[in-house]
Amino acid sequence: MKLEKFSADTRGFANHGWLQANHSFSFANFYNPERMQFGALRVLNDDLIAPSMGFSTHPHQNMEIITIPLSGVLKHKDSMSNEWLYVKPNEVQVMSAGKGIYHSEMNGSSEDYLSLFQIWIIPNQDGVNPRYNQQSFDPQDRKNKLQVLVSSLDDTNENGLKIHQDAKLSRVDLDEGSTFQYNLKSQNHGVYVMNISGDVAVDNQELAHRDALGVSDTDEFSIQANSKSELLFIEIPMN
């Protein structure tokens, strides 16, 4: 089993005033040749957006984009819809940019900050028709068990959202002292484990708040929760 730790304080950071952004991989003005991607995972941004602020209309192409609000409310509009759509915590948004799409992302509140993860996954097909979807997930369904948020359009699993890649995004909320085993789809896959909060250990690797761990070359691994913890798993092909 191969383990690669990504400490929270080694991420790229940019303070734009209205936006405080942490980049797990090279993005915008943050460039690290050793942090370009993890398998098909290209971007994991941990953003804090000021009230009523956000990203004006901009284009994307040939990328699977997943947004997970952690607190606050996201307001989204794209070239497929004339109406603003709202995405709240315990909801997930997916957008297949495909052959081209324009969208805007704003903090939907005039009072509260918006905290979110935005994830870009390289698709297994280019030039597809753009598509959008969002879904609500009950946090009780991830208490000490895996809750699948996103999987491949080719996957027979009907639960959750779908993207153009043989990937799986999931969450688990662990009680202090509990142990959780994660089983991978195959040894050709790896898992990027983001510790949203709490304190956990995988083998001898300790993960604190916002630390991450790349796990590959294995069929399974176990996590020990040293405190009450929330974890995000991004499983993707490594080649």
Task: Give short descriptive properties of this protein.
single chain; 239 residues; mainly beta; Jelly Rolls; 2 domains; 7-stranded mixed beta sheet; 7-stranded antiparallel beta sheet; RmlC-like_jellyroll; RmlC_Cupin_sf; quercetin 2,3-dioxygenase activity
What does this structure look like?
The chain is mainly β. The chain folds into 2 domains: 11-125, Jelly Rolls; 139-237, Sandwich (Jelly Rolls), CATH 2.60.120. It contains no helices and 22 strands. The strands form 4 sheets. Strands 1-20-17-22-15-13-14 form a 7-stranded mixed sheet, with no helix packed on it. A 7-stranded antiparallel sheet has the order 2-3-4-11-6-9-12, with no helix packed on it. A 4-stranded antiparallel sheet has the order 5-10-7-8, with no helix packed on it. Strand 7 (74-78) and strand 8 form a beta hairpin. The chain starts with a strand and ends with a strand.
CATH-level-4 superfamily name of the largest domain: Jelly Rolls
Distance, first to last CA = 16 Å
Give the assembly state of these chains: single chain
Report Rg. Answer: 17 Å
Beta strand count: 22
Total helices: the number is 0
H/E topology pattern: EEEEEEEEEEEEEEEEEEEEEE
Largest sheet: 7 strands, mixed
What's the shape? globular
Q: What structural class results from the helix and strand content?
A: mainly beta
pLDDT averaged over residues? 96
Relative strand content:
over 45%
CATH topology grouping of the largest domain: Jelly Rolls
